[in-house]
Structures
1.
Amino acid sequence: MGVLNVTPDSFSDGGRYADRAAAVAHGVAMRAEGADIVDVGGESTRPGADRIDAQTEIGRVLPVVRELTAAGVPVSIDTSRAAVAVEALAAGAVLVNDVSGGLADPAMAKVVADAGCPWVLMHWRGHSRDMQRLALYQDVVAEVRAELSLRVDEALAAGVAPDQIIVDPGLGFAKTAEHNWLLSAHLDRIMALGYPVLFAASRKSYLGRLLADRQGNPRPVHEREAATLATTVLAIEAGVWGVRVHDVRASVDAIKVWEATWRARSR
Ligand code: PMM
């Protein structure tokens, strides 16, 4: 899954693809590099971000969803608003990626159930503005798993088909670096829920912190790619359904190495 944030302020690609033509060209390029799907988002979810209104979000994403779909690129819509999902699905999006797992908008479950499309339910505890104060866990893996399980139950109760559900531990969302490492190390326990898992570590700040220089300055966002690739390989080895990344070609290359090695294991 290639990341395409049509926002002025996302932490990694904010501002780069705010222009429609640049966004569409980047989406087409990610598809050519091997992305199975391009994830279009119009609202930044970086920690501390303020919300925008639904019309602004729709205005940002809709032209891009439409043009990418017309160009034959499979698109997912990264939104936690039902109104945005409705418009994006009508414009050709084939999957809803909801960082709130259905919690932010009670109307989302019915939209997804009616559309019959896949739904990524990410683990989430609150909006970006103040989510880091919700990063309190006794046992992060057990609690994320239990809270995801509740989201799945609600989705099923709303009529979403079980084979359309994908879960995501939500790295960085109400999580400290230590929480992210624990979730990464115990993906098997998230997978034990019985649903495909999406893993989204690409360029996140805990990688920047891991790679900090001797003065403790985090590694800048655009110099976290090698670390991102390591997370891709580890997640694929753990058996995830997909990885959500900014540099598609690099992760596709790494996955090809993993696949060739995996095939050779049985020879
Ligand atoms: N992270 C971001 C945005 N959308 N969606 C899912 N399913 N999982 C994530 O972890 C996730 C997401 C924030 O990162 P970005 O600014 O690179 O898009």
2.
Amino acid sequence: MHIDRIEAKSILDTRGRPTIETTLFSGTLEATASVPSGKSTGKHEALELRDADDSVAQAIKNVNGEIATAITERDFNSLDELDNFLISLDGTPNKSRLGANAILSVSIAAMRLSALQENMPLWQAIAKRAGTTPSTPRLFVNVMNGGAHAGFPSNKFGTGKLPFQEYLLVVEGKTSETFPIAQELFAKLGELLWKPGVHNNCGRLASTTSMGDEGGYAPTFDTLEKPFELLAELVKEFPNTSIAIDAAASELFHDGVYQLLGKSYSPDELAAIYRELVERFSLHSIEDPFAENAGTDFAKLTATLNSPSTPLGATTLVVGDDLTVTNPARIIEAAKNKEINAVLIKPNQIGTVKEALEAVRETYNAGWEVVASHRSGETSDTFIADFAYGIGAHGLKAGGFAQPERLVKYERLLAIEHEAETR
Ligand code: PGA
Ligand code: ZN
């Protein structure tokens, strides 16, 4: 591959914050990619380069300057060679010199460019590169947003708010069937949350429902169980539909305890809450149930929830996000200690497509599931949908339905499915 020219610029994400968009030009072809941005970011993630004024001016300068000069001067035999070149050009363990956002924008645009050159749909080019079998992921739709995604600073959780970051509905099947089901569920939930009096038994204050960062509702409940009771009521009519959460527990962890709804819990007490929620509401998965360095607590919960001898069954996924940060080495470590049984894959946590695919490989080597994921600050780039389909992910987490930047990912899945069926 030869890249003739590179052009990076600033665009805004769903929170109105600047992020990077890069276009690569090669002959008559061009390919563009933009990079999302997290809020509840893990400490072990690769570095998103931001300036003191919150802009990404330096990251853009790095792409248009140093990266452009270095990569337009040579030919690359493969995308892996290009990604390795970017990694060594940066030269730091966490891409802090050039910025993981700067590097990933080039890495994704190059993947797109290569698919165009091969005249192949992106998902197919990803599958070919990864050696995976493409398939439709379950939709993980974030219908109620809480925690850091509902406007709270991470150290100030008020009482009466949703303590967990994400309350998701998981819908399994072909996207042409799951998308309308998820859409109907999202609309029904909206009616329940906005109409005063409809769900008084949930202790909900209708006037306090707003929208969260990921395009889901951000309501208020007075107990931990009530949001689950509401969702359980909602999904019971729909086949192949279940409830999941992302606790994002690094955000709840202060001074050695977890703080939820104004009370403090030890790791064991929190584990007991999860067990009860799994038992009562048949949770499909729990993401980041403990803080990012609490691997031992993860391992204990994974063993409990997946022991065939418990009445809980052996099917609950314990998903690592801040724990594993799409980092192959951290996934290998988690596998050694049996800490989890599923991994969230977010390419911008690691900074190149090559390393994100390595993370996928290590996850599959461990015999675990992959959930591909967007970030809470998103753009209209749909790469993650092609990625999820191409690697045959268990699920795709792309947010709620109230933001176009989330919807385009689900809509891209629909288009991919059609493309795959008609090829
Ligand atoms: P983030 O949240 O993008 O703010 O990190 C998403 C998640 O925790 O899964
Ligand atoms: Zn998460």
3.
Amino acid sequence: MKKPNNESVSTNKKRETFSSGLAVFFATLGSAVGLGNIWKFPYLVGENGGGAFVLIYFLSILLVGMPVMVSEFYIGRKSRSNAVSAFTKLKANPKWKIIGYFGVAAAFLIMFYYSAVAGWVYSYVFKAINGAFSNLSNFSFEQATNIVENQFLTTTESLYSPIIWQGISILVVALILIGGVKNGIERITKTLMPVLFVLLVISCIRALTLPGAKAGFNFLFKIDFSKINPSVILSALGLAFFKLSLGMGTMITYGSYFTEDNNLIHTSAKVALSDTFVSLLAGIAIFPVVFTFGMRPNSGPSLLFNTIPLVFSHIPFGNLLIIAFFILASIAATTASLSMAEVPIAFITEKWNIKRKYSVIIVSLSTFIVGALTVHSSSIFGHVTILGKNFFDLFDYISSNIILPVGGLLIAIFVGYFVSKDSVLDELSNNNKLSNSKTITIYYFVLKYISPLLLLIVFLNSLGII
Ligand code: TRP
């Protein structure tokens, strides 16, 4: 049996932090921007009817996402500890550690399928290099669409290659993480995030010159209120949490590496805004293609893979741009995975007091072993369903639609009602060094009265209770 407070032993060691405000921003943005923006956001918008979903998504970010993000930063920086021990450090009732434990569980559930999708994305870089999409312009729209769709099926359904690619994506993340906070996470995110942005803008410019640009734009921004229903709201809220990496301790863990002089509220606003901007850019790059090539916007997780090769199919150097785009997507997937894996890694390293290297190996190997189940969840394991969902959908549903919103609710209640207001005010104003008392008042009000209420209503409704 372990002693209950043995976490404090290892946290006495000097903890790493990011080196500057810019590094904090890029690392946090690197966590937020990921497959969520370029893969999940577009297909959920497609499945949930377009503009109305986008509107609810914005509201979720503003009224729930940002306040919860600031709260996670508060818990992390104040405690300078991993997502589980943070609660002990803040002298809270040990029951609150459940947030951290659920977080560690959610991190694994998400990594199981996220690494599979990351593997698809990596493999597309090599497909494009090998010329799989290089002569699409010789075919009619319909034939080109068929070719691209077949490529997706062969990528995901062949027996070994998706598992090998998944393994490669996990390995890359592991190698960066072994480098640690400054040399690993910080260095990679600071270089790669700007590159990603530039590539995305190029994709948008091209997409906007397609004949279906207007229809795509309308789909994304035209609000049809009749499309709003409880399941749309729950998906938008779940996406807001997934997008901003909230509800499972990622931002607690990253917050624990923040510099003392960082303005937590500013960081959250800048990250939320930039992240949402990137999602919209992805939507603008993808939906014009859907409408130009007569595809279905609600085709689900394959949407990204079936549209992007077509965006660039009829332009000079198109093939190079396809390669560039999938490199971009790989970057996004990788920097986001770093932050996911960091939750269990920080926890295991500090809890068992082992070398960081070993916890990286433990977390990566277990992700690979269980994660392989998701790769063939709709083919070989297609008959295995739990609650009517295959492994892939089940892991996604439990994490995004249950653990993240419930984790967010508990975090909001914890910071709003169970820690002293003074402690929150001190931390958010950097011990009164910032003169931001008005913003803090607004944050505190929304966090205490609005975010939990919204989360509760939406959640009870989704369970059919109200
Ligand atoms: N935000 C990332 C994305 O959009 C995914 C992600 C990284 C995440 N860390 C997380 C999601 C923690 C939930 C929780 O792709």
4.
Amino acid sequence: MGKTPTPHIEAKAGDFAKTVLMPGDPLRAKYVAETFLDEPVLVNQVRGVNGFTGTYKGKRVSVMASGMGMPSIGIYSYELYHFYDVENIIRMGTAGAMQPDLALRDVVLGIGACTDSNYAKQFGLPGTYAPTASYELLEKAVSVIRDMGGIRYKIGNLLSSDAFYNDNAQTTALWQKMGVLAVEMEAAALYMNAARCGKHALAICTISDSLVTGEATTSQERQSSFGDMVKIALETA
Ligand code: HPA
């Protein structure tokens, strides 16, 4: 374990559980802690990035926001893995569907995460790195989903994009041709940090909008599908 507190997290060593759930939004982290965890304790609020540790069915679990995009989740996941001895990070986010057979509110588990970012450049690899989920976490999440029943889900590649507003409209079609299921902005950096550190990561996303049909969920729909995703993540933790 490295030095704590870190530049971005004020928690002390031992304040985080071995598994941290990461929504993008700090208010979602607070909502998860207050709604689903027993005896949640606030362990971080630097930059408003709320982090809590509590228990779920007797199991110690933490939840902290990742912020948006790969630089942000890159910082938080690095510090959690390296300085707080965290073993598992489960991202709970939204994603835009890139395939016609994905409906709003479907769950996508990212077995891999393609990216248009340069995040992997720092590792100096002599080729293209393929960021992947932890098989253990993925297998557990799939069995949780099957046990819960009634959840529409797919397992496949995500695209972690640096640009939400991409000036080049052609790029989507190219990723679609490769069978990429959905676009979000964090999983690839999370998977790379986990791999580099010998730790575990999984991105669970719900479809909030479709790049195929142009539909989008209402905030009410996002809230209820978020609840399913939290249950999947908590049972997987
Ligand atoms: N693009 C990138 N990230 C997203 C999207 C999207 O369309 N929807 C939800 N997260």
